[in-house]
Design a protein that fits this description.
single chain, mainly alpha, two-stranded parallel sheet, 11 helices, 2 strands, 2% strand, disordered N terminus
Length: 259
């Protein structure tokens, strides 16, 4: 069977086998309980894969590396998970299932509820940076994905949205969070690889920039760029960028909903 999505894509494996594995703890999927059971489980395979991806990204995640981490042969591993595509689906569903989901109080304003959803997703991406590199072709419909979707849809209760608009609003919020997380992770990578903070980089290069940059030619860029650099103590402030974007998202949703 041809796969869809290519390397590092969710939803690219065998759908039937993936669903069996995703719902392996359900009485409705007894066929998922296959293979040798001596000291190894699907959960153990997923945990080993998560440790590799969290530590080295998706490029570090291979079936051979997972097998080595577990102390088994690759052929043994394949009796639990048929391939990397299915494993990626299991990993995605696992991190979604393990997310904190504090209950929403009926008196809690919808802005606070949606902010909680955004904060939780930002924390998830920063804890598992490989998520921003995972191409989700079709989200695996496992217990983690469904529990996350059910919980997050409830955050929009009382906003006056119909079902389609509620789904779109959630997609809008999560897309904004993911974009911000990617920018924040990129900034962290640059700082780590250069061994310099933004403030240190700016201090080191400011004398050269002052010699070559014509502020009179670019007055707006000069004024705004300098103000931002002073405010951020560098070139970028992830906390400010996240808070600013989230506030604009909430304002937009407020205009969309009905009082």
């Amino acid at each position: 069977m041809a796969t869809i999505g290519g390397k590092n894509s969710s939803g690219a494996g065998d759908p039937a086998r993936t669903l069996e594995l995703l719902w392996r703890d359900s009485a409705a999927a007894p066929a998922a309980r296959r293979g040798p059971r001596q000291g190894l489980t699907v959960d153990a395979v997923v945990d080993a894969a998560l440790a590799l991806a969290d530590g080295g990204g998706l490029d570090a995640l291979t079936m051979r590396a997972v097998a080595q981490r577990l102390g088994v042969t690759p052929m043994t591993l394949y009796t639990y998970v048929p391939g990397k595509s299915e494993l990626l689906d299991l990993m995605l569903d696992a991190v979604f299932l393990r997310m904190d989901r504090p209950p929403f109080g009926p008196e809690q304003p919808w802005r606070d509820r949606v902010t909680s959803v955004a904060d939780a997703n930002r924390a998830l991406h920063l804890r598992h940076p490989w998520l921003v590199d995972l191409r989700i072709v079709r989200a695996p419909l496992g217990p983690g994905v469904m529990a996350k979707y059910e919980y997050e849809l409830a955050a929009f209760e009382g906003l006056g949205l119909d079902d389609v608009a509620r789904d779109s609003a959630l997609t809008f919020v999560l897309g904004s969070v993911q974009a911000g997380a990617r920018a924040e992770l990129d900034a962290r990578a640059v700082e780590r690889e250069s061994a310099m903070s933004d403030g240190e980089w700016w201090a080191a290069h400011e004398p050269l920039l002052a010699r070559v940059f014509d502020g009179a030619r670019f007055p707006l860029a000069s004024r705004v760029g300098e103000a931002a650099a002073v405010a951020y103590d560098g070139l970028y402030d992830a906390e400010h960028a996240y808070a600013f974007a989230l506030a604009r998202v909430l304002d937009g949703l407020a205009a969309l909903g009905t009082p």
